[in-house]
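queue> pop job 88
queue> type: inverse folding (structure -> sequence)
queue> payload:
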């Protein structure tokens, strides 16, 4: 049987015969000689109302259909006399593909996000989560479209790595060693006997690999999963998340700031155009100021200011913060949100951070105190993009690695890229889930990723 998506039927400009839809029953109510079924197939937020009358074969079986059951319905698309809907389907045949018991947990009532996280395998059948993941799908496509239109090449960077890009040490170790019989050498695990012959981790970033290709292909980007073994149970952190990381040869920090602003505006405008019905659900039930926030991003030129100026503004604000504001300390979410939501009331790009709070690969400024780094901050989220101009000068890069206690032996290939035709280049990383949170108003990152991985949670 060839089915038609409900989305396409709702967009039809004329009645149609011999239509087949397949989907899941949201509700069923019976009247004298009729049953009304609301069917959703996941293609859009709206349901298709189906009218099945008593003349249909096995009509009594139709009256046994429960919420959550999968059905295939053949019938005619007709104009609906009911309010709020253009079309309905008059059924000629109803086939039950999979019956759901009365214990199906998604009944016609509102469920809390906390409860739905416990049934993540089913929550995408709800209106809210169906909308989240349709937006996630469209956003993924838009990212590729943005870079393709601008001549970037898509690079698949390794998930397994021996490098620690951020220098934070919060990485997941990967091993094929027998955990009940771990080989030792000088009292430590002997990773020379492991699968790769060396200690191996899940990646926290594809940036270092992307840099190598930027220095060959010009402009590249990577978009994939990254992992961080940070024991954090906040609403902004998960252990597995997705990152978008463009890297541009022959570009400086200003170029990275320009691209990041253009990128966010493009994606926001794209989702408003492509997913308006789904966005309106979030604007109605999740964040009533959502559309104002999104339109504000599109209409504003992002404020740009140095880290020093940002610290000065925060110190003069007379605002009571949980975390102290002081030059040389990283800004916290509460500081970032104050700047975007209360002081400037629009997105902000902060640049020239102290070198002591940034990774080794960021280019040292002439003052030898700050680096050519930038963070893009947006309302309700805080930091959504972090980037920098990369240190292309071999001697300064090596000195910086020595200063931070990094083994140059482990990064020999990265250092070597600065020996052979090194060129200035820049890039940034954007947290994909954080952008989804911004676009939907959802306040917990666990609710914009299909199966969240957090401390003590690896179900599904």
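queue> result:
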């Amino acid at each position: 049987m060839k089915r038609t998506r409900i989305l396409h039927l709702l967009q039809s400009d004329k009645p149609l015969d011999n239509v087949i839809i397949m989907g899941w029953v949201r509700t069923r109510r019976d009247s004298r000689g009729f049953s009304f079924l609301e069917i959703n197939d996941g293609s859009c937020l709206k349901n298709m109302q189906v009218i099945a009358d008593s003349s249909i074969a096995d009509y009594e079986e139709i009256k046994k259909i429960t919420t959550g059951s999968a059905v295939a319905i053949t019938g005619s698309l007709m104009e609906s006399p009911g309010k709020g809907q253009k079309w309905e389907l008059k059924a000629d045949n109803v086939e039950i593909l999979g019956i759901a018991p009365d214990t199906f947990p998604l009944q016609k009532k509102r469920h809390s996000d906390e409860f739905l996280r416990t049934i993540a395998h089913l929550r995408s059948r709800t209106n809210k989560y169906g909308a989240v993941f349709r937006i996630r799908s469209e956003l993924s496509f838009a990212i590729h479209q943005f870079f393709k239109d601008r001549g970037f090449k898509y690079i698949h960077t390794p998930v397994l790595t021996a490098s620690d890009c951020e220098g934070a040490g919060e990485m997941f170790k990967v091993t094929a060693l027998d955990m009940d019989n771990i080989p030792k050498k000088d009292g430590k695990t002997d990773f020379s006997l492991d699968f790769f012959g060396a200690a191996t981790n899940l990646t926290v970033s594809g940036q270092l690999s992307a840099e190598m290709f930027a220095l060959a292909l010009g402009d590249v980007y990577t978009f994939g999963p990254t992992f961080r073994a940070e024991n954090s149970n906040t609403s902004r952190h998960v252990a597995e998340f997705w990152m978008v990381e463009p890297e541009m040869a022959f570009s400086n920090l200003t170029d990275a700031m320009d691209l990041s602003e253009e990128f966010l505006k493009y994606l926001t405008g794209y989702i408003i155009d492509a997913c308006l019905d789904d966005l309106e659900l979030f604007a109605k039930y999740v964040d009533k100021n959502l559309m104002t926030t999104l339109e504000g991003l599109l209409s504003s030129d992002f404020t740009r200011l140095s880290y020093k100026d940002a610290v000065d503004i925060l110190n003069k604000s007379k605002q009571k913060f949980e975390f102290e504001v002081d030059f040389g300390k990283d800004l916290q979410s509460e500081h970032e949100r104050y700047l975007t939501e209360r002081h400037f009331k629009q997105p902000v790009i902060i640049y020239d951070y102290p070198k002591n709070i940034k990774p080794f690969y960021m280019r040292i400024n002439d003052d030898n105190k700050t680096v050519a780094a930038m963070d893009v901050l947006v309302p309700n989220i805080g930091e959504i993009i972090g980037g920098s101009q990369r240190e292309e000068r071999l001697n300064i890069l090596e000195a910086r690695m020595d200063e931070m206690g990094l083994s140059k032996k482990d990064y020999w290939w990265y250092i070597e890229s600065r020996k052979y035709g090194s060129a200035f280049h820049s890039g940034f990383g954007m947290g994909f889930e954080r952008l989804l949170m911004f676009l939907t108003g959802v306040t917990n990152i666990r609710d914009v990723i299909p199966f969240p991985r957090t401390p003590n949670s690896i179900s599904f």
